[in-house]
Amino acid sequence: MSENLVSLNPGPAPKGQMVKAGKDKYYTIEKGSGDRVVFLLHGGGPGCTAWSDFAVVSDMFAEHYRVIMPDLLQYGQSSKDIIEGPMWDYHSGSITRLMDALGVEKADFVCNSWGGTIALRLASRFPERVRSLTITGSMPVFRGPLCPLPEGGRRGRNARDIYYGGAEGPTLEKMRQLIARLEWYNPDLIPEETVKMRFEQSLNPEEMALAANADSPRGEWQEMEPVLKDVACPTLFCWGLQDDFLTPDYPLMLMNMVQRGQLHILDASSHHLQEERPEHYFQIVHGFLQQPHDEVMAGA
To answer: In terms of domain of life, where is this protein from (predicted)?
Structure first.
């Protein structure tokens, strides 16, 4: 495996701002400048935020683009209201309102896990708002192409229940074990600051209450398979070879469900490759973003 050329330590988060998007409020961090806007949408693990998932790689993107990093609803410092109705419909509509509030007409979306499914729904509903998608470790379809999904597709939910459950509740060691078991390929590379950041955020009383709520506070689950055919923008599925949630046959299936899909498999990486191998991840995604996406491909 090629060694990382940069420190994986996220460092302290820069100061962000609270942005009102309809009735929702998003805490956002911005970096870089320019007409090309890239949203970084984080994953859904306990204690995840935009900064925890994209800190190091965000500096690389900010050298070329205006980068917007929102904490997704129910995470970080953003609104934590219970979501009613179809979940991906709600999130995708809310992100468009955030774009309006920030004066962004169209953007590229680079996403991990939970954030990627939001972006896929956004692209299928509001194609005029999305230039391209990069999807990493997301599960928009609740089946595998060759065999059942691990733990019936509930590996994330089960990991959350274990983390918040038990007599002791969340602990620093449980957070370290969760990241090592499910998110990173090489546990020796996990920065202690990342573990502490995620752990401290996971203790937020509102996040803990949402985790303990048995009545689907995240909204009604939506099966995305019927709408993926409506995703017309160029879409890169960038996957870890050792992803513990979804093996590479899964994004290969997704690639064939959208209109302009392609797939890159990165070795020696699991679910959070943008954290574990940031410079490799950036080079892959930056190259994809530089393709002439607005041109109609011959034969398409």
So the answer is: Bacteria
Where does residue 76 fall: left (phi above 0), alpha (psi -120 to 50 degrees), or beta otherwise? left
Q: Is the pTM of this model over 0.90?
A: yes
- Whole-number Å distance between alpha carbons of 184 and 144: 22
| Rounded Cα–Cα distance for residues 277 and 179 (Å) | 15
Q: Using the 8-state DSSP alphabet, how is residue 267 labeled?
A: S
Inter-residue contact 115 to 89 (CB < 8 Å): no
Per-10-residue mean pLDDT of the chain, 300 residues long, equals 78 97 98 96 97 98 98 98 95 98 98 98 98 97 89 90 92 98 97 98 95 82 95 98 95 97 97 98 98 55
Question: How is residue 153 annotated by DSSP?
Answer: G
* Domain regions of the chain by residue span: 17-289
